[in-house]
TrEMBL record:
Database matches in CDD domains: GST_N_Beta
InterPro entries: Glutathione-S-Trfase_C-like, Glutathione-S-Trfase_C_sf, Glutathione_S-Trfase, Glutathione_S-Trfase_N, GST_C, Thioredoxin-like_sf
Pfam families per record: GST_C, GST_N_2
Keywords assigned: Transferase
GST N-terminal domain boundaries: 1-82
Protein name per the record: Glutathione S-transferase
GO molecular function: transferase activity
UniProt domain GST C-terminal: residue ranges: 88-214
SUPFAM superfamilies recorded: GST C-terminal domain-like, Thioredoxin-like
């Protein structure tokens, strides 16, 4: 059985896991999960009780959640790809450090702005959250710009792309969505994003999200329903249906 990635729309961070699967090139399937609708359904909660995408059903039927765990699993299946590294190596440590920073600092910086988007805030509360959110996003971008300046290549970890770049592709676009700043404010980040935008795996993930005609893929085996996902997952009880 090929693994199944459950990805969230619109603009979920699960985008990065689609990119990673395309880069590795091994067979996989997808299941499309709308947010906040389907992601809070009993069917999805049977897979992930915290109502978040991505979720991932491995080839053995085990269920993984959280992007970093899923990316780690994907990378472990293709250590010869250069996208991930052997545990205990210096490159493994560098990759985990970057993924950790992207998750805890860069991703988290958008929290207040997403809260405003998802909740009915107004007045001084909305203004305060927006100002705080923009300051967090700007700080994270200043830090990343400095990291890229000290780097030794065009990608997050240097000369070669890694799973960190795949994850970044999914969350970097949030700055555009929330219109925090002009891209020219951070030229190294802008250059990395332009490089990613021209990547075949990123273009494929974009087409998946936007329901556009799909570019060629040697790995993608099609979409499956959430019911089919539940039937494939080990140890998951199918939710009762209303009669």
């Amino acid at each position: 059985m090929s693994p199944i990635l459950l990805y969230g729309i619109p603009a979920g961070c699960s985008f990065g896991s689609i990119v990673a699967l395309e880069w590795i090139g091994r067979p996989y399937r997808l299941s499309r999960i709308s947010m906040p609708g389907v992601v809070t359904s009993d069917a999805f909660l049977a897979l992930n009780p915290v109502a978040e995408t991505p979720a991932f059903v491995t080839a053995n039927g085990d269920v993984l959640t959280e992007s970093l765990a899923i990316l780690g699993h994907i990378g472990a299946q293709a250590l010869d790809s250069g996208l991930a590294f052997r545990q205990g190596s210096a490159d493994f440590d560098r990759l985990n450090r970057m993924l950790g920073w992207l998750n805890t600092t860069f991703f988290n910086a958008f929290g207040a702005l997403w809260y405003v988007y998802e909740h009915d805030t107004a007045g001084t509360e909305k203004t305060a959250l927006q100002e705080y959110g923009r300051s967090k996003v700007l700080k994270a971008h200043r830090q990343l710009e400095a990291l890229l300046e000290r780097g030794d290549g065009p990608w997050l970890l240097g000369a070669r792309r890694t799973l960190a770049d795949a994850y970044f592709a999914g969350i970097a676009r949030w700055a555009d969505y929330h219109a925090v700043f002009e891209p020219a404010a951070f030229p190294r980040i802008a250059a990395l994003r332009a490089r990613l935008a021209d990547d075949a795996g990123v273009r494929f993930a974009q087409a998946i999200e936007e329901n556009l005609p799909l570019p060629a893929s040697s790995a993608f085996e099609g979409h499956v329903s959430l019911d089919d996902v539940l039937a494939s997952a080990r140890g998951i009880a199918m939710p009762a249906r209303a009669i």
